[in-house]
Every structure is written in structure tokens, then in C-alpha cells.
Amino acid sequence: MPNPNAIVANVLRVEPPLEAGDRRERTVVLEGERRARLDPGNPRSGGFAQILDGLRKMGMPVYVEVDPTTLAVTRLLIPDVTRVLALRESNDGLLVDGTCFAGAPTTTSSWRRRCASRCARVTWSP
Question: How far apart are CA 61 and CA 107, in angstroms?
Fold first, then answer.
């Protein structure tokens, strides 16, 4: 079952914009007008802000988990963006064959990753 407090989306903007040494509270606006807070009391928030702004500039998606009460970011992951070559069912989940983001295989032929029900979102685009 997907985490109800997880968001997988592109970053639209970080408000207010980043300035060196600035530790103000920030709001991250994600696709679908979803919002998350960066709490200045959390020592990781400065790093989160820099990563989120970098992903915004690159047009890359982000996976964030938020506290359901405060909407503060509690976890940040960068999804592995790939081209899917094949999907096959296996006894312990879904077997995915693909290539890395740049289009070159990540090994001599392809990589394999097991994806069980904990996946937040799988999107398909030809």
C-alpha cells in the first residue's frame, strides 16, 4: 500500500527563493499545487531546500514524505528515472528491466530491480 504521506512530483518552486545563509521557513510547491514545509528548526531543511531547488532547475521529480499534521518534509529521496524495457511478474513482486536516465544500459545489458507494493507511483509514457 502506498504511503499516504508521500508525494512524488516535480518541484514547481521554493518560496521564498533561496539566499545564502538564509534559514527562513520555506514552502515547496509541487505539481498539482501540493505543498510541503521546510521547517527551519530541522537541521536538514537547508540541504533539502538546495536539493529541491536543484531538482526544480533540472526538471527532475522528487519523492518527499511529509508529517501529516504540519506538512513538514520528513524524508526526501530522488527517484531513479529510467526507461522501462520490460515488466514481468515474479513470486515476490514485479521485475522491471530498464536503462538508466541517459539511455545507456546501466550494466552490459540491462539492470533489474524488484518492486513490491511499497512503490509510490509507476507512470508509463511511450
Answer: 24
Tell me the per-residue pLDDT of 53-95, one tens digit each, with 9 for 90 and over: 999 999 999 999 999 999 999 999 987 776 777 777 777 677 7
> Under a CB-based contact definition with an 8 Å cutoff, are residues 28 and 42 in contact?
no
Cell numbers that stand for 17 in this block: 527563493
Strands (E), the chain: 6-15, 26-30, 34-38, 61-66, 73-77, 83-90, 93-99, 111-115
Q: Mind listing the domains of the chain with CATH numbers?
A: 6-77 (2.40.50), 83-115 (no CATH)
Question: Which amino acid is present at 103?
Answer: G
The most distant pair of C-alpha atoms in the chain lies apart, rounded to whole Å, by 50
Burial of 12 (0-12, 13-18, 19+ CB in 10 A): middle
